[in-house]
Amino acid sequence: MSETDKTTCFEPWNEVGKKPLIEFRGVSKKFGALTAIDNVSFSIYEREFFALLGPSGCGKTTLMRMLGGFETPSQGQIFIDGKDISTIPANQRSVNMMFQSYALFPHLTVADNIAFGLKRSDMPKSEIAGRVDEMIKLVQLGNLGGRKPHQISGGQRQRVALARSLAKAPKLLLLDEPLGALDKKLRQETQFELVDIQEKLGTTFVIVTHDQEEAMTVSSRIGIMDQGKLIQIDTPDRIYEAPTSVRVADFIGDVNLIEGNATTTANDKITIDWAEGQPALTAQTTANIKDGTKITFAIRPEKIAMSAKRPDDALNAIEGHIHDIAYLGNISIYKIRLASGHMIKAQAANTRRLSRRNYTWEDKVWLSWTETAGIVLTK
Amino acid sequence: MNFRKYLLILIPYSWLLLLFLVPFIIVVKMSLSDTEMAIPPYYPYFTLSEGWQGIVNFFSELDFENYIFLAEDNLYWKAYLSSLKIALISTFFTLLIGYPIAYGMANAQPEWRPTLMMIIILPFWTSFLIRIYSWMGILSQEGFLNQFLLWIGIIDQPLTILNTNVAVYIGIVYTYLPFMILPIYASLEKLDISLLEAAIDLGCNRSQSFWLITMPLSKAGVIAGCFLVFIPVLGEFVIPDLLGGADTLMIGTILWQEFFANRDWPVASAVAVVLLLLLMIPIILFQRSEQKQREAEQ
Ligand SMILES: Nc1ncnc2c1ncn2[C@@H]1O[C@H](COP(=O)(O)OP(=O)(O)OP(=O)(O)O)[C@@H](O)[C@H]1O
Ligand SMILES: [Mg+2]
User: Fold this and answer.
1) Which helix H or strand E contains B128, and what residues bound it?
2) What is the pLDDT of residues A5-20, one digit of tens each?
3) What percent of chain A has pLDDT over 70?
4) A29 CB under 6 A from ligand 1?
5) Are A360 and A334 a contacting pair, CB within 8 Å?
6) CB of B207 within 8 Å of any CB in chain A?
7) CA within 20 to 30 Å of A139's CA: A56, B108, B240, B290, which one?
8) What is the spatial distance between Cα B27 and Cα A3, in angstroms, rounded to a whole number?
9) Predicted ipTM?
């Protein structure tokens, strides 16, 4: 698929001398005593699909609102196209925002809501109706054009808000949880539409989402926020495979976190002592770790193999009992209780029918993984 | 089950019956009677002591004479029209002054809003009559306003404001301003700020976003405020009586005079019935718009 193309061809953040479309320089935002955004510096490039991910209340909306010009930074500067954003009035930026609360105009019909921005632009009157129809089709609102916002469902409202922000085809589009209220199928379709629009129009997207899968599929880069800080900005695969901190590893996907003390054995290898009576783990890392350093070893459930007998060639193998099984259809998550009291999650594909499953509750199993399966984290 | 449901509507209905319908019927009956120098000053009375014949006699004595009189004497029509004019103009000015005040209140810092609200409501704590009398003190030839204007040198002859229609307008606008401000404020305060942000985001400047978003969304408050001012002003009699002059003509004052100066209760009742019928029109319109608003908000 185009995934590999994307990573090889589209990496403006790696190009030397490339001018970013958006640049945050040491931006902080305080609400009274609360620091909602804490000294954030980063860049977003033209044509990027930038996803902001983070726990509720971490400052995603605030960051977006500053980009939209609805909040002014308490400190630092934001540049769009090299221009300080505070010098351009909000209604003259070629930025459109889709609000988390939708902010649909209750007194206007769906069609008039979508046409609202177009009527304020220099688009000729004769073209507006056509454009509105196009947008209504795009978000599959069919014949709801004449309804008022209170006469449609929550998901439909969200689509109206999306259509309204897309209608002007702005250079930069800020979407604050644009697809949260849609069912899975419609959400996926709309995601593809967004990617399509982006490829057609060259729009730069900044999108806030709580759906990690969504962030993974659509974005060129993901920014992980936590308590007002951007703690990692990376491509989806690196965010998942190479998180730089426990926070990121823990926030994205499912992960087992094992704390222990590191001892360097070879150039890029360490052993981790982590529990009484448990064999030390071996892991590969490029980081320079002093002996005796406290580290966290992070390993994802799908990287752990399960077997009834100890695999002969396995470098890391530990024994435990199945505590719980969560059946998710295509896969199952097994919770394995170790003698030391640790709980480790392992994932297995359900290639067989449920009735013919290999393991069941309280079975003794061996967990094993290779030395490159997990990551060693020092913060 | 059904019985309880009826009981529930019975209470407000019997309330209405007692406090509105019964007095209204008495007034209608009075308006169909003739004047007499007696106590009470009209004829016939309704008595049950003479039996069925008495009731028949009673009804045969009623007629529409007073209404015909109202229609023929153009004083009344002029008074109705003049009241209408005064009510319309003062509603307009109340809106003109009230809207910006409500807008300012709704945009004030949240911690200031209760205080501002208090200031708007505060006048209600003193008697309405006292407030109108103090306006007489302000507006008279030697009043504060004239003294002030003379002192700063804008005028060199005191203005005659008291006992003119201007004083009536000032009095009405002053008295009814809170009735305009409060509903408008309520609708503006409900207004979601993110709607204005969205409008600006979509390319509006501040005045466009006001006319395209704020104004239409506060329409319900404006309509409610206008009716709340217009309806009572139409029948107002204290303000024109105290602040108005010889050329101030309002149906409320006429009504008062007929009742208490002329002691012509039947004609006064006819005036009241016609006034009530006239008021029905705006009241029905008001209820319609409230209904529509509620449907839109559901
Ligand atoms: N206008 C404001 N006044 C005071 N505090 C605010 C204001 N706006 C946001 N905050 C606070 O700033 C922090 C960040 O809020 P923000 O809305 O950016 O979170 P978020 O990441 O968008 O959360 P969610 O995922 O729930 O939408 C929160 O603690 C919030 O309470
Ligand atoms: Mg948010």
Assistant:
1) helix B128-139
2) 444 567 888 888 888 9
3) 97
4) no
5) no
6) no
7) A56
8) 86
9) 0.78
Nearest-angstrom CA–CA distance, B87 and B32: 28
What count of Cα atoms within 13 Å lies in the side-chain half-sphere of residue B152? 6
Chain A residues inside the 8 Å CB shell of B293: none
The b-or-e profile of B8-44 (16+ CB within 10 A means b, else e) is eeeeeeeeeeeeeeeeeeebebbbbbebeeeeebbeb
Measure Cα distances from B7 to A83, B3, B10, B11, B133 in Å: 71, 6, 5, 7, 47
Radius of gyration of chain A (CA): 25
Residue B297: per-residue pLDDT: 64
Question: What's the pLDDT tens digit per position in A156-206?
Answer: 998 999 999 989 888 899 999 888 888 888 888 888 888 888 887 788 999
Residue A337: φ, ψ to 5°: -95, 125
Classify each residue of A199-233 as buried b or exposed e, where b means 16 or more C-beta atoms within 10 Å of its C-beta.
eeeebbbbbbbebbebbbbbbbbbbbbbebbbbbb
Q: Are A273 and A260 in contact (CB under 8 A)?
A: yes
Q: How far is the CA of A175 from the centre of ligand 2 (A)?
A: 10
Separation in Å, CA B45 to CA A141, B58, B102, B260 = 70, 7, 52, 20
Residue type, A8: T
Measured between alpha carbons, how far is B190 from A322 in angstroms, rounded to an integer? 55
Helix H segments across A326-373? none
**Is A61 near ligand 1, meaning CB less than 6 Å away?**
yes
Verify whether ligand 1 is closer than 6 Å to residue A209 (CB atom): no
Single-letter residue type at B114: P
> Angle at Cα B234 formed by Cα B222 and Cα B244, nearest 5°?
115
Nearest to A305 by CA among A258, A249, A359, A376: A359
| Tokens standing for residue A104 | 């649909």
Write down the pTM of the prediction: 0.79
Domains of chain A: 3-94+170-247 (3.40.50.300), 254-377 (2.40.50.140)
* B111 at A interface, C-beta within 8 A: no
Q: Are strands A172-176 and A95-98 parallel, antiparallel or unpaired?
A: parallel
Q: Which amino acid is at A339?
A: A
Res A356: pLDDT:
65
A105 in contact with B, Cβ within 8 Å: yes
* Strand ranges for chain B from DSSP E: 34-35, 42-43
Task: Please classify residue A272 by burial: count the beta carbons closer than 10 Å to its beta carbon, then call 0-12 exposed, 13-18 middle and 19+ buried.
Answer: buried
Burial call B142-158: b when 16+ CB within 10 Å, e when fewer:
ebebbeeeeeeeeeeee
Q: How much of chain B exceeds pLDDT 70, in percent?
A: 99
Inform me whether the pLDDT recorded for A30 exceeds 90: yes
Burial of A280 (0-12, 13-18, 19+ CB in 10 A): middle
> Domains in chain B, please, with CATH?
73-297 (1.10.3720.10)
Q: Which of residues 122-161 of B touch A (CB under 8 A)?
A: none
Do B137 and B193 touch, CB atoms closer than 8 A? no
Q: Which residue has the tokens 């199993």?
A: A365
Give the torsion sign (CA, A152, A158, A164, A169): negative
